[in-house]
Design goal:
It is a single chain. This protein has 437 residues and is of the alpha/beta class. It has 15 helices and 16 strands. The protein has a seven-stranded parallel β-sheet, with helices on both faces. Strands 15-10-12-11-16 form a five-stranded antiparallel β-sheet, with no helix packed on it. The protein has a two-stranded parallel sheet with strand order 1-2.
Length: 437
């Protein structure tokens, strides 16, 4: 795009154009860029459009820019939906990691793909799981091809058990030992859900698909059920007792494995000498050695409350908000819906928790709930609309606009935008968010 705007790229004699991963490019906010590139190519060029899903926007582009196209659909001989058990758990964002950990500790799985929305989330979640003792790694679009191939080979060969991936990074991934797909972040559309769970349950084998759903995302759960024509089972999260029983069983299995496969003669002599010298029972010596191996983290979970379902959200008043500045505005062709989508997708906030949006020439101001955690703000700052990072920072409004404040019903009073052209400063209203009952 930069080369086209500077005149250093001439597409007037282009013979062939390939548009790959079209659905993901549009979902990430590149619709206008795609339109601009296509419009700059001659009408005689051949266009090949590849997309794993076919939402209405893809079909619209195909109808406008492809000349007498042939629609080629590749369908698996065996539907994964018939061989994959589908379950869901209603959980808030703050409890997702604990819920995932319990599932990983108790659920019998071979290989697992955990889907998240952003590249940064793949790295963050993989690191947190490794800290908790799981063999996990991230895979995302920032990886070089050799690193990607090495990571997939580790999963295929059993050196790696859990892959944290984005939708784009998992395209074309086919590993036989993937027994589970877990949707840590709910997908943006039903076709993406079907594509995700297609990574398991292949070639007649059984598979497991688990979906984490927040209360505000229940409408997407219903849409998924309508699309797949299958109800998703509400799953029961493993209890503390079940997690502890699993940990004890694994601990005992490790002892048996060492007893059966290692020469322990030298260690037995050391323990015998220590027992005679200090008059300590053998069981207590074994317990001390186990603690040395296991480290300071407790072996068993405490009986604390279960990860709870997400509570109902409330509307904000003006006193509940703080104003933030994001480094994207009219010159970047941003729309209010882009901002709302980026914030809700990255933070888990619902639409009715986002206050007034004020789009200016090179930046925008947005009101968000007061007291957001620093980690959430850090993630939001690295989120992107199109190719540009939000780079969020504290913001100050120069003056309040006349009329109702953001805390009133002005939020949804006009869903049709009147920001058709860039202006030095334009105040806009956030899109209406339909309530789902």
């Amino acid at each position: 795009m930069d080369h086209m705007e500077r005149g250093s790229l001439d597409l007037s004699n282009l013979d062939c154009l390939v548009l790959d991963e079209a659905d993901e490019m549009l979902r990430m906010g590149f619709h206008e860029d795609v339109e601009k590139v296509l419009s700059a190519t001659p009408p005689t060029r051949q266009v090949a459009l590849f997309s794993a899903t076919m939402p209405s926007m893809i079909r619209k582009i195909a109808a406008e820019h492809l000349n007498d196209p042939a629609d080629i659909a590749i369908k698996s001989k065996t539907s994964t939906l018939t061989t994959t058990r589908q379950r869901y758990w209603t959980v808030s964002r703050m409890h997702k990691l604990d819920a995932l950990t319990r599932i990983l500790e108790v659920e019998p799985y071979d290989g697992m793909i955990v889907f998240v929305r952003t590249k940064q989330a793949t790295e963050d979640l993989a690191q947190k799981l490794r800290t908790r003792g799981f063999a996990a790694s991230a895979i995302n679009g920032d990886m070089s091809q050799p690193v990607r191939e090495q990571t997939i080979a580790s999963l295929r060969e059993g050196r790696l058990n859990i892959l944290i991936a984005t939708d784009v990074a998992a395209r074309g991934l086919d590993v036989d030992r993937i027994s589970h797909v877990l949707n840590y972040d709910i997908p943006h559309d039903t076709e993406s859900y079907v594509h995700r769970i297609g990574r398991t349950g292949r070639a007649g084998r059984s598979g497991e698909a688990i979906l984490f759903v927040a209360q505000r995302e229940r409408h997407m759960l219903r849409s998924i059920e309508r699309t797949t024509r299958q109800p998703l089972e509400p799953m029961t999260l493993p209890t503390v007792a079940e997690v502890n029983a699993s940990r004890q069983a694994k601990f005992a299995a490790r002892i048996t494995e060492v007893l059966d496969g290692q020469d322990l003669t030298a260690y037995e002599a050391l323990i015998t000498d220590y027992q005679a010298e200090h008059d300590v029972p053998p069981a207590r010596i074994a317990a001390a050695l186990a603690r040395m191996v296991h480290g300071d983290a407790p072996l068993l979970l405490a009986e604390d409350p279960e990860p709870a379902a997400e509570p109902a959200r409330r509307e904000m008043s003006s006193g509940d908000t703080e104003t933030y500045r994001i480094a994207i505005g009219h010159t970047h062709r941003v729309k209010p819906g882009n901002i709302v989508g980026a914030i809700t997708g990255e933070t888990g906030l619902s639409g009715n928790q986002i206050g007034r949006i004020e789009i200016m020439s090179d930046h925008s101001l947005v009101d968000l709930p007061a007291g957001l955690p620093a980690e959430m703000l850090r993630r939001l700052g690295t989120a992107r609309i199109g190719s540009r990072q939000l780079r969020i920072s504290p913001g100050v409004r120069s003056a309040r606009p006349s009329g109702p404040s953001r805390g009133s019903d002005s939020r949804g009073s006009d869903s049709r935008r009147r920001d058709s052209g860039p202006a030095p400063t334009t105040r806009v209203k956030k899109p209406r968010h339909k309530k789902t009952h």
